[in-house]
Specification:
Elements lengths: L2 H32 L7 H26 L1 E5 L2 H34 L4 H4 L2 H19 L19 H7 L4 E3 H4 L2 H37 L2 H41 L6 H25 L1 H42 L7 H13 L1
Length: 352
Amino acid sequence: MAEWSWVAYTVLEVIIAVACCLGNVLVVCAVCVGIRDSLREPTFCFLVSLAVADLLVGVAAVPLAVLLDGWVSVTPDLCLLLSCVVLVLTQASVLSLLAIAVDRYLRLHTPLRYKALATQRRTWMAVSMCWILSCLLGFTPLFGWRNYSSLPSDSTNTSSSSSSSISPPCTFLSVISLPFMVYFNFLGCVMAPLLVMTLLYTRIFWSLQGRLKDSCPQAKASLLREKRLALSLALVLILFAGCWIPLHLMNCLLLFQGPQAVTQGTLYTGILLSHANSAVNPVVYACRIPKIQQAYSQIWRRFLVRLNCCHGDEQLRRSITGSRANRTETCGSGGKTTPLEKTRGSFSVQYV
């Protein structure tokens, strides 16, 4: 890959990382602070989990993607550990989306038992299970399913062992095996949950469509709100699939047809697209979910009010500083009184 292309790739990664951090911090603040009692609703708890995963993509996954392009030389075990972090964050996003789909399905099809089932304690237990399971699935290569070609062999002579003490450049595919990425990660950990979510949302929309036809006008408003939220969450799912599946298909081509099947530029485009998904989600929330729209507006109003207050305080400080400077100049003028002070003195004498 040409040097200018790598520079463009790095600049785009930096922009995506900044957008991920700013957007998802705003989402977490909007849900936790801007929406009253939002964390008592399971859907918003899972949205916070998804936003935290997207935030960590900007904080950790994007910098690691740039570094794990052969720009750092570390031991193979450390390289493998850093590469697994990216897999953990991807899996956390998938399981958070799956939890959201299951929650909306239960809310619609078991309305009488929903509050008893989806308690706050159980919701946070589900969030914890999503992250624990993500760690177990993402760190699977640490337990043996790795690319052994990058590991130094034990049967080496003295000269080869001295040369192998210099760690090779760390790249993702030098330690993560393509069969693991295709058969386990793509088909088992990404495609299987995506198919389940597709079936759940299909059932949700089918049921909502039927209920809207047979419901009274009072119930239609609630069902329409439910449909709008389901459409918004389904859009998040579609964007996730559209951004991540191309990269996984490239891994399939690399496995079955060899390195010549995918150019370096195409692979970098797939990586950028997958990372961009974490920056797009906050925009979808802002455009499609009314409660988060209102929370965004409240946060911006508070920010502008504080900015105006800080600006006003700064002007007040400047005026106080200027008045103090004038008094200092008056005191340092040798006790001479100004015409105004003489006038004040004459007025006081006349008054007395």
